[in-house]
Amino acid sequence: MKMLVSLILILGCVQVCAADGSDMISAVNKVPSRFRPSLVKSLGAAESNASEWIKAINTSSQEHLTAVAFLIANMPIDDLKVLKCDMILRDINLAYKARNEVAWGKSIPEELFLNDVLPYVNLNEKREEWRPDFVNRFLPAVKNCKSIEEAVGVLNSEVFKQLHVQYHPTKRPKPDQNPSESAKAGYASCTGLSIMLTDACRACCIPARVAGIPDWTKSGGNHTWVEIWTNQWRFVGAAEPGPLDQTWFTGNAAEAVESEPSHSIYAASYGPAGTYFPMVWNETSQIVPAWNVSAFYTNRRKITLNVQGRSDGSTDSIMLRLKGQLVAEISPGKSIDLFLAAGKNYRVEQSKSGSSKIASRDLTIPLTGSSEIAFSLAP
């Protein structure tokens, strides 16, 4: 197996080919080319469990093949060795089911659907198949909601009522509980509550991720919460129903220090990101990718942005990125209010439907001055 993996890596996985018709090589050739190098590494790391992931690829529908490839290519090594493909395939089927049933499903950018809806895990919590139960419980409650904001409001109230879980700093058995552990205990830490709400959101096709800080800059102590994608990343406290971006910890978060790791705010990611999520209950672990999102809390500024795209036929929405991370999505030619990190340089990208980028330019959000920005991608 190791020799086969080495051979494939040498070939670069642009088009894997071999005379022996290996099941592994055949499976790798089925997935989109952008996943092949990482997928080969994952199959090698899976060791004797690689057959599970080859089976997942071979039995997946064409519609779900990208999702299967993404999850395997970015799967933590320990999971690659022990998880079974049936759970992952069921998860994927249910994620697409939810996407088809909610009003916002089709509008979610594909990269966020893959990275912030599909994943079965957030941090280092014990793995379990929570999605079937959560889809059955919570999708009916939000199917008639018109927006993600409305749906999150419902979930942040109903999830903890239905599962009979509340916050307690010491009565919870451990800080990083998965949903069933929290439900059994009846108590959870802020991290356990955030994992539960994030999973419930994902079950309803709402892109969500766990966010947190290892140590508040002035008051000390760690905290964990949830970030929600509407057309940009917003934040909410788990088991704290209320409007997005209006929490008891907003002031504390504004005092984060982006350059100091222990006082920075991080948002967890399933796929590769700029750094790792520091878990205070497992300080040596660096297994969870994360983005340092401190500036969106410390230099947060409301901006009215209007981007004129190029007139190159039908286009997708325009994407704003910061250091590669997708942070906002807007429609060409329409003014929209966004909460962005001021003083940062963003990449503004426009793509034509079904093809690659047709235009991109840099945009710096000023710290002061007018909050209304008109910007053009036209040459």
Strand and helix layout:
Blueprint: H1 2-11, H2 23-30, H3 36-45, H4 50-59, H5 65-73, H6 77-82, H7 85-101, H8 110-116, H9 131-142, H10 148-163, E1 166-167, H11 179-185, E2 187-188, H12 190-203, E3 208-213, E4 223-229, E5 233-236, H13 250-253, E6 266-268, E7 275-276, E8 289-292, H14 295-298, E9 300-308, E10 318-322, E11 325-330, E12 336-341, E13 345-351, E14 357-364, E15 372-376
Parallel strand pairs: 1-2, 9-15
Antiparallel strand pairs: 3-4, 3-6, 4-5, 6-8, 7-8, 9-12, 10-11, 10-13, 13-14
* Unreliable residue runs: 6-21
The pLDDT mean sits at 91
Portion of residues in helices?
25-40%
Silhouette: globular
User: Describe the biggest sheet?
Assistant: 6 strands, antiparallel
> Total number of helical segments?
14
Give the name of the CATH architecture of the domain at 121-297.
Answer: Roll
Label the structural class: alpha+beta
The total strand number stands at 15
Predict the CATH topology of the domain at 121-297.
Answer: C8orf32 fold
> Mind telling me the C-alpha Rg?
21 Å
